[in-house]
Amino acid sequence: MSTKPGRRVVWGHLLLLTVIVGVVIAYLLDARGVSTRVNNLLLVQPAAILALILAALVLPGLFPQRGSAEEDELPKETPADLMRIFALIGALAFLAFSLETIGFDIATFIFMVVALAICGERRWWVNLLFSALFTVFLIYGYGTITPFPFPLTIL
Amino acid sequence: MIELNAVSGAFALLSSDINAWLYLLPGLVIGLVFGAMPGISITMAMAFALPATLYMDFLPAIIFLTAIYTGAGFGGSVPAVLMGIPGTSSAVATTFDGYPMARKGEHNQALGVALASSVFGCLVSYLLLFFLIAPVSSVVLKLGPLEMFAVAVWGMLLLGSLAGRHMSRGLLAGVFGVLLGTIGMNTAGFIRGTMGVPWLLDGIPQIPAMMGLLAASQLIGLINTTYLIEDEGSRKISFSKILSGLKTAFVYPTIILRGSVIGVVIGAIPGVGSSISNLLSYSETKRNAPDGDTFGQGNPKGVIAAESANSSSEGGAMATMLALGIPGGGATAILLAAFAMHNIVGGPSFIANNKDIVYALIFSNFAQAILLLFVGLGFVYVASYVVRVPLRFLIPSVLVVSTFGAYAIEGSASGPITLWIFSVLGWAMVRYGYPVAAAVVGLLLGSLLEGNLLRTNQISGGDFISYGLERPWALLIFALMIGSIIMQALSKRKKLKQAAENSESRSASEAS
Question: ipTM score of the complex?
Answer without folding.
Answer: 0.93
